[in-house]
């Protein structure tokens, strides 16, 4: 009997990892209405800055606008790599170091806002880690890494996405990063709402108390209440124009 149970357990574990992550991501993008980002101009406010995203024919244009004392600043980012900064409608030259920082900050906000759209970019590599449960709800656990070519300056970052097994919503994500000393973060989706065919969601942003916690273990620590909240990612005044 023990041998039979052992074989059965191995069989079940083996089956749990035998899923195509591409199919799961495709379904999640569909459920979130992510392909509408290819037809719409989407704008929103985040932390006193105005953002917008427009994707067309494989190319993207991101914008960020805000006021700084008596100056109005507008950043336009083409294809995630080419930045033009305007101050009071005049183009300004930026030192390379600051230009790169602005590129990264604009990219970061728009990347998270559009998820799971973007996870089919050519540089994205997907790995199915298996099924798991978070507070008794079933999830596909998918790891994402990036090829060096086309993966941007942060190509070494790693992500894990928890996609609901039945609803195909992206309810949680975790990521590791190397900038500013490096670290990991875990985000829980909140305030989900639909706007003109696109699911919009905000996040609770958390971190582990231990810097050595493996990325794959963040869901377990979250369920045990062993992650601490750092901030809330709240996207306001979202507008979708087709």
Structural summary, described in words:
The chain is an alpha+beta fold and 242 residues long. It has one domain (20-241): outer membrane lipoprotein receptor (LolB), chain A, CATH 2.50.20. It has four helices and 14 strands. The chain has helices at residues 2-16, 21-31, 96-114, 218-223, and strands at residues 41-46, 49-56, 59-68, 71-78, 82-87, 90-92, 124-134, 137-146, 158-164, 170-177, 183-195, 198-208, 227-233, 236-241. The longest helix has 19 residues, at 96-114. The termini are far apart. Mean pLDDT is 91; it is low at 1-15.
Shape: globular
Low-confidence stretches: 1-15
Could you tell me the strand content as a percent range?
A: over 45%
The profile of the biggest β sheet is: 7 strands, antiparallel
Roughly how many Å is the radius of gyration?
20 Å
User: What is the CATH fold-level name?
Assistant: outer membrane lipoprotein receptor (LolB), chain A
What order do the helices and strands follow? HHEEEEEEHEEEEEEHEE
Summing up helix and strand content along with how strands pair, one would put the structural category as alpha+beta
| Spatial strand sequence of the major β-sheet | 6-5-4-3-2-1-14
The helicity comes to: 10-25%
Structural domain count: 1
**Name given to the CATH architecture:** Clam
Number of helices: 4
The span between the termini is 62 Å
